[in-house]
Amino acid sequence: MRITGYGSLAELPAHEWDALTVGATIYSSSGFLGVREEELPEGAQAHHLLAYDEDASAPGGAGEAVAGLEVYSFLRPPHVIYTPADLLDGLIPQERHTHLAASPLAIGAGWSEFRGQLPGRPGVTAEQRRSAVEALTAQALRRAGDAGASVLAYYFMPREEAEEVARAHAGDGAVLLFHNVETSLPIGLWENFDEYAAWLPSGRRPRARRELRRFREAGRVVRDYKLPDVVKEMAPMNSALMQKHGHTAFDEERVATVYDRQGRHLGDSSTLLMAQESDGTNVGFALRYRQRDMLYGRVAGFDYSRPNIADYFNLVFYHSIAEGEGRSTREIHLGLGTFEAKMVRGAQPTPLYTVLVGVDRPLDADAKAVSARNRREITAFAEEHSGFVVGGIDAAAWQLD
């Protein structure tokens, strides 16, 4: 495989990159690469790597990219949830832990939006994919070393991709950890709200019907906008939500800056549902991005001076279901967190895993401690949340050994 690296989105052949994101989440698209590039903190660097198969006789042969990988280096974690020392606590020697906690780090497969992956061209052979991943991860490790990083982390990956990355880094002592869970609403299962309600367990149907009915009886309506057209209107409501949950830095000005940026890079993919009173007053919104037959819920916000009539669930769940959006949409990706509220209304869980690799030297993780940690974390999540999931959680299928 031939690897070509690009230091900025302006250099990257975006059409080649986006040809790889068919079937990948929108968070791997060139639009989100642009957002991340503008959000990089001081001292951070980005590299976008493309792997090309030099066998002209192979599918997707010479001149076409087979797979891609984002690699970022940081002087310090860009967000508290991207802190490798926290994940490795108790799994590696204390001296090694202290060293990496004080050192720069590198993140592969994307950062922000809490989702990582190595996008690839559809239809390539298993051998092409394996060769591309090996070449890309080797280059990522070299880039991490050049940046003086102590650890290279691939965060929040679906199991199949996490395992292929771990295999590629097997000689580097990779550590594979269960990390978190994302949820999605399988809206493609239902033609309308009645089919959805019938799918729910009988004890949950009355609440769903009641929440939709109360919203409509209150006279609230939902209208669909493109993000760039309503940044000014959504900013105070998102700021209010962030402030409510303790994120005091997200004042209206910062929110407007963040979503003006996303609007510039992703405006054509955006669909912002705005809940309004009968007089047109905005009371809440939910921002999603569309990629083919998937919707990705990004953020919401509300006017807390107005009565809450299950606005979040009407915007994120019921409106789309009742409007028959499942005829063209397979799933609505709902991200991490607020598990119970989402699951009792039909959201399904998918486990995410993180791969950690020592850069300057191996992490020397205790294999038994890693295995025990993964089993404990997966079992605990399943025991706490399985009762909320329609169909339950098959914890055994999530285990790594």
Overview of the molecule:
By secondary structure, the protein is α+β, with helices and mostly antiparallel strands. The protein folds into 2 domains: 2-181 and 352-398, Aminopeptidase, CATH 3.40.630; 187-329, Aminopeptidase (3-Layer(aba) Sandwich). The protein is 37% helix and 23% strand. The protein contains 14 helices and 12 strands. Strand 4, helix 5 and strand 5 form a beta-alpha-beta unit. Helix 8 crosses helix 11 and helix 9 crosses helix 10 (252-266). The radius of gyration is 22 Å and the shape is globular. The model has no long low-confidence stretch (mean pLDDT 94).
Set down the secondary structure blueprint.
Blueprint (H helix, E strand, L loop, with lengths): L1 E5 L7 H7 L9 H10 L5 E8 L12 E10 L9 H5 L5 H8 L3 E4 L17 H21 L4 E7 L1 H10 L6 E11 L7 H7 L5 H13 L3 E5 L5 H14 L7 H15 L3 E7 L5 E10 L2 E9 L8 H12 L8 E6 L2 H5 L4 E11 L8 H19 L9 H4 L3
Parallel strand pairs: 4-5, 10-11
Antiparallel strand pairs: 1-2, 2-3, 3-4, 5-12, 6-11, 6-12, 7-8, 8-9, 9-10
Helix pairs in contact: 2-10, 8-11, 9-10
Name some characteristics of this structure.
2 domains, 12 strands, 14 helices, 401 residues, Acyl_CoA_acyltransferase, Aminopeptidase, FemAB-like, twelve-stranded mixed beta sheet, single chain, alpha+beta, 23% strand, GNAT family N-acetyltransferase
Shape: globular
Query: What percentage of residues falls in helices of 4 or more residues?
Result: 25-40%
The average pLDDT score comes to 94
Q: In oligomeric terms, what are we looking at? A: single chain
CATH class of the largest domain: Alpha Beta
SSE order, as H and E?
A: EHHEEHHEHEHEHHEHHEEEHEHEHH
